[in-house]
Amino acid sequence: MPELPEVETTRRGISPHMVGKQIKTATVFDARLRWPVSPEVAQLSGLTINDIKRRGKYLLFDVGTGHLIWHLGMSGSMRIKPADEPNLYHEHIEVEMQDGVTLTYRDPRRFGACLFTAEDPLQHKLIKHLGPEPLGDEFNSDYLFAVCRKRKVPIKNLIMNSQVVVGVGNIYASESLFRAGIRPGRAASRLSRVMCEKLVDCIKQVLAQAIEKGGTTLQDFTRSDGKPGYFSQSLQVYGNKGDCFTCGTPIKHITQAQRSSYYCPTCQK
DNA sequence: CCCTGAACCTGACCGC
DNA sequence: TGCGGTCAGGTTCAGG
Description:
Elements lengths: L3 H15 L4 E6 L22 E5 L2 E5 L4 E5 L5 E5 L9 E7 L4 E5 L6 E5 L7 H4 L12 H9 L5 H5 L10 H11 L12 H20 L39 E5 L2 E5 L6
Antiparallel strand pairs: 1-6, 2-3, 3-4, 4-8, 5-7, 6-7, 9-10
Helix pairs in contact: 1-6, 3-6, 5-6
The chain binds a DNA duplex (16 and 16 nucleotides) through helix 5.
């Protein structure tokens, strides 16, 4: 479900309900996520959530004594549960604040993670080696071009590699490449400087627009307030089994690195 | 260091 | 209806 825009949408949605408040109780109904949920998570009572930050697709909850490093995996989502509404199936973690506001984490496939660390979260094994944020200045055409020089992998695989740049998932990789006019299968080393400029611009644009629209709802992604994200309506190629909206050529659907890619063989070179 | 493929899970959907 | 196969928004890890 979640790529960077969905994670950021989640962060913005839950922050006003959580930040600056004290935790009443945190309950772990099922600790079997990607890795076992840290035991500290069940003992957050009395701690205050000072801030909720994001690094790539990881949410970082500052609880004073340390941080929760929370990843939504493929199917994870968070919502503020209306009072006296029963829990849904697969809601594995719940955090109730002193004022009664309750956050629930649902994750049918359990690829997500919820870990506690008392150290600097940015130095954590999972975070430390992440590439630059796509919307920051560090991610620019000079950087991408330099990285591309040494790589023979298809450009789509490269931009989905979180060591290169974080936050670009399967949907937005296809969408960005379409907007940049570059085929997903093109070897990274065969991108010109101009192509890199174009691609960086398009990645930033697509992600920024998706955040503005509250993310992309395909099957079950909903924002923390239960509403869908509206970027689905802006998708040009991802999931398009018909013709290119721009030129009418049938959209190609291929598999790269075990993931679906969509592109227009006419618009993309 | 770079790259590939398997693995981790459940559920939805499609064709027979 | 039921059953089997396929696919799904991510990431780590082992091994070549």
